[in-house]
Amino acid sequence: MLAKLSPAFLIWFAAFVSGDLARAQAQTSMGGMAPASAAKAANIPAAVVPGTQVEAALSADAPDESGLRYYARLGQSARVAAETKRLQRLYPNWRVPDDIYAPVANDGVDEEPMWDLYAADKVDELVSAIERRIAGEPGWQPSKDLVNKAQAKVLRRKIMAYWQDGQWRNLVELVKGANISSAEVDILWAIAEAHSKIKQTTETLEIYKTILNTNTKSDARIATIQKAMGTLRMAEVEQLVAMAKIGPDGKDEFAAISVDLTRARMSAFLHDEAAKEISGPELDEFKAYAEKDQDPNQPALAAWYHYKRREYREGLDWFKLALEHGGDAMVAHGLALTLQNLDMKREAEEVAYAWREPLVNNSILFIDILERDLTKPIPPYIEPQRLLRYGQVAMETTSGQGAQALAWYAYNSCQYEVAHEWFRRAVAWHPKEPTAYGYALVLRKLKKSKEYVEIINRYDGLYRKVIDLVFPDDLYHPPTPCETDLRQAAMAGMAGMYGATGMAGQAYMQVNPGMTLAGAQPYGQPNMQAQGAVQDPARMYAWGRVPLPGQNGNVQMQPNGVFGQQQTQQVVKLNRSEFPVSTSPENDLRYPSPGAAAANAGFAGMMAREPVPGPWPLVARRVPGIGPMPYERYGFTLLPGWQGQTAASNPPASAQIAPAGTLWAKEPPEQAPIDAQTGMPVAGSNGHGAGGYGVGAPQFMAPAAPMQGGRPNDSKTTFRRG
Predict the structure, then answer these.
(1) Is the pLDDT at 392 greater than 60, yes or no?
(2) The pTM is what?
(3) Are strands 711-712 and 707-708 parallel, antiparallel or unpaired?
(4) How many whole angstroms separate alpha carbon 426 and alpha carbon 695?
(5) Where does residue 80 rank: exposed (0-12), middle (13-18), buried (19+ CB within 10 A)?
(6) Where are the extended beta strands (E) located within 524-678?
(7) Are 465 and 694 within 8 A, CB to CB?
(8) Nearest alpha-carbon partner for 304 in 289, 322, 288
(9) What pLDDT does residue 658 have?
């Protein structure tokens, strides 16, 4: 619509407001053709709305009463009152004349048709009428009041066009430098929103303050506060709320939106923004509203408010109410988190599983909840059906966290073949030190010497615990249940390490009838003969059977629930043909895309190959943020890192506080510092430092390799000239 305004009129308009009427008429008499330099002059002048600096300059001598008289002649009392207030604001000493309803003389020229067009909001036709009058009657000019009002309408339409199109910077530039204090309130709201969109919050706040200082209408003042809550931080909104007028009853004028203000303060609290403290009556008022309202977001806000204040019991009821009102998966996520914090982990697991598909957060939480039990060194009994669905979710989401949790559970419950399959996927999907360490353990347990050597060499220089398998610390580590025979289990029961009520204790007592055994109950929860349970060789514990990756339907149970005879640990003897060796960094179990594992339990899709085919280096390079390797205490070292680093990082990155704002910042750093000389955890440290063991890792080490003179076998000293 604005494009219809002719350049000739805009040029004349700019000249008129600057007082150069002769130039305006000369340019208009050229048939509407503007000179080459008129492009700049054709722009609409700086924003002029009723009461601006330009308007005051045009009316410096006396106010133009033509508009007021026109409205009075038409009997439009509301417009007469509005125009009267505008003129009094511009000219404080002006008074309404007695002959306001008398006909207006305008140099013998009647402007009434133009005022009719203005009143009908026909801006384009008004502009055309002015253009025709200027061209046909040399020396004629419209009244200053008509010019100001026409200009204001043009600018209003341009402002609203920019606002509707989201051209925030253009809108701000249009009104820059203008006195907008007497503009209509909706125009001021649009200008304030434009400033907020380009992060000019100071200007936004000042515009809202201008409205509250100049506007006395209650509806407009309340709406201004509501607008401010959508564009400013609550700390800035509080400045506007403080400008409220107090009524005769002692209440401020914004009491009608007290629920909205409380809601905004709760939201600010959840976003760690400063805001006024919410009082008990204010919170109760909001809760009463949220309980009756059918919008699930209202009780959900109360629930999250209690959750952040760690008032989990109160938050639980509100999360349930929000779901009853139709809450979404994020509300279910809050319910699961609340149940978890109330130590109702099984209920939290069920909620997270039921809502896993609509929101990935719930899928991640489902994996995380059960992982804590799955990765315990001596895990509890978990029903096979729960393990089955856990494995299915891990495969569907290609979750490295879920895969390593099932792998550790299988490993620590003597299910080594299954553990091998899950560790392979965990290393492929989310390689990290505990996962690679567990993979190496199960390869050694299954006597897969080639793969074991390959993993050890692949992570040389990166994962210290993996290399620890070759260079053990020679400290005593208690055997795991899978490594304990009957006699050891019985003796352990005497010491209180295991219970004396299991089959191992009973068998030992039959051989030694005079001996009394005492100890704690076995850790396994169900009866030892529970269907489908897997047991350790001494039959002291019971575990659920872990499904293979990709397994669907019911878990196939072995008729005999006992794992079988103890598998003796066979440590692969390494020599210089085994470590160090050149190893490809290629991961043989990379899937083409997330979720592809659900369609194929094996090696699905094309494998992503490394761009360099080899040959691979023999010696590992130093990796920034990684502590010393175990063999460095013997005088060996690594090649310099890519940035020239030659010494190990101390403390390693895993023991440092992560940068603020990152996901890792929420994770506590590893507690055990590393001794720079020995490369081992500092004595007395009780944390799992870089030399400690990962989640679910059994606390034992391989026997030491043959040593000569305090160094590894001399045949291996060629791998690094340290």
Answers:
(1) yes
(2) 0.60
(3) antiparallel
(4) 14
(5) buried
(6) 534-535, 542-543
(7) yes
(8) 322
(9) 76
